[in-house]
Amino acid sequence: MSQRIFAAVQMLTVGFCVLILAPGPAAGQAFWREDTPKIPMAASWLAEKAELPPYNPPQTADGVPDLQGVWGGSGGDGLSYLEEHEYVDVTTPAQESFVSDPPDGKIPYTTWGLARRNEILAGLGRGWPDESGERLYSSPSAFCLNYMPRFSLSALEIVQQPGSVIMLGEEGYRVIPTDGRPPISEDAKFWFGNSRGHWEGDTLVVEVTSLNGRGWFDSTGHYYTENTRMTERWRLADENTIDYEVTIVDPTVYSRPWTMNFPRRRPGTGPDMRGGRMASAVMVNAPAFEDPYAGEVWEDACYEGNREGPASLRALGYDWFRGMTPPQ
Amino acid sequence: MRHRFLRLMLGLAAICTLTPMPSVGQTAATTPYTPLRTADGHPNLQGIWQVVNTAAWDLEAHQASLGVPAGHSVVEGGAIPYQPSALAKKKDNFEQRATLDPETRCYLPGVPRITYMPYPFQIIQQADKVSIAYEYLRAIRYIYMNGNPHPPGPIDWWMGDSRGRWEGNTLVVDVIHFNDQTWFDRAGNFHSDALHVIERYTPTGPDHLLYEATIEDPNVFSRPWKISMPLYRRQEANSELLEYQCPAYLLEQEWDNPVSTLFGEH
Amino acid sequence: MKKQTLGLLSAFGLMLAAAPVAAHHSFAAEFDIEKPIELRGTLTRMDWVNPHGWFFIDVENSDGTVTNWAIEAGGATQLLRRGLRKTDFPAGTEVIVNGYLARSGEPVVNGRSVITPDGKNFFLGSNTSGAAGR
Fold first, then answer.
1. What ipTM was estimated for this complex?
2. Is B248 inside a domain boundary?
3. Which of residues 107-166 of A touch B (CB under 8 A)?
4. How does pLDDT run across B172-215, given as a tens digit for each residue?
5. pTM confidence score
6. Residue B195 is part of which domain span?
7. How close is the nearest chain B Cα to the Cα of A145, in Å?
8. Total structural domains in chain B?
9. Residue B37 in contact with residue B124, Cβ under 8 Å?
């Protein structure tokens, strides 16, 4: 058996073992078992990162670090619940916090900011803890909308050109100029904000401004505002791992900046061999080395296919989230 | 004197016959343009492009009306060759375009309509594919050039399945596996799920591409037909794709509308 | 050889299919986990869309009337990648659905499993058992 096929079989075997911990067959939704071990996120990554030797990344022809290739997303519960939590229901297994700083893993809201978040949480109408049963808002992601930083938490392909870093995804893309041009006026606001990148040593630093404050960090109502700025850091921690960080700054709702941090793996690498921490029946039943279309992204058309979703949420009485305006 | 004059006239006639004349919708190309190449030796079509015409409103020649500019046809031969029953449906579509046009629902516009929506797009080339990133809807098309054929059908995608190859300096894209839900423009020109589109992107100068698309659909048209138009490179130094997240604007507008028709279908 | 390399090193499509960060988070708002339900019926139609496909099944009620139920299922892309096509699911196919009832009171279910009476799992196709054998 050729070495390549053996490696693939090895990967499949491990993949099968991981399947035991994985959610059930994806019918309408990934269904997680209650005994799923707590999914690692920021804390485990910080510990793993601390043990890594220094890494000198390869460079592109333009003399900047080469981050190109396909990279996994954060994995986990699909940004259902950002802070550390135990098993909630079949959609949301136990998971470490995404928040690496502050060290307690909690978003450092001001008093006003936290009160607003808890109002949203109380009105999600899902039968989750801390809800009142009332229906207030649904997560913007329920409408197939995409925004920052959500887009950055999915699997994507990085392509580098002189003066720009391009991120290709399933539901969209980002083109990040690195040629020193200024961002657009802050008076123009966008779901994806406006991104400008520059290199600091081995790290691609991306400043995201002009956010419209309509997106959420997760499905539990961790919102942000039009005043929010995000700074991403993309750095190769080793040849198969990007150390992805995003720092959130918004003095109108947070008492200090805070940071999310997780590793992104190349496909078929990483401790769980999955390039993301959630295995599923798909991976096992569609082996990569047999499927010539494995490298392709096929049409999602989420909004076009999701006509039932907004209709039923609206009929249930949810309001449309229009952002949060902090006091002056 | 007469012979010289005759010779001159014959000479001029010969020149006029041999010089290519621009036909409908095409830019006049006298000598083929040799584009720069990417690192892997292919023509470099990369950059931010946009059409400047009225195809988005109506592919055929049309007059102006409130909010609608007049325009020449971008269809070779002028008219779209509908089968008679399909032409009747096109006329119905036109009458009811305010409600029937899928653009009013912010749905993906299909191919080739997305090319001539009045928004910029960016061509990105790699070894295994050409990606086209559109500002409109933040749509992304992956045109695979990895040796894979179209996957077997039946498949119903809004943007179809795109497979590309190079013919000289032209990127040729073969697109099938469409659903029947998109229109070609705001005038009700439509197709079935048997649609087959062949696009051609040809550099004609450092800042221009010629875009051609051949449309084939035996359920709707009596023969294949073709559109063509220039693509213009955006010149502004700060040129970038911004965003047009249409569904967000539409949902917000309709959410509080007690008589909205957006949420009725299940 | 080249295709194998592409498959192993750039399994982008599979990573997306398997790790949908684009989880749409309205499941618990729209469906009631406290209300599991089993239905047996015949397929009338399928909508092959993302993020969730839909099955429509005619279910005979105890009084002899028939109700058409909508079953929210896996996204179309997952099925297409497994080689399944809409023509594999002809109208009239008998199915057993297990899932969760919609909160709205409408005949809508989020399908956890959809199988045929002879045990074929709709989501894995007819003969595929794969390493997991699910």
1. 0.89
2. no
3. 140, 143-146, 159, 161, 166
4. 999 999 999 999 999 999 999 999 999 999 999 999 999 999 99
5. 0.88
6. 24-145+157-236
7. 7
8. 1
9. no
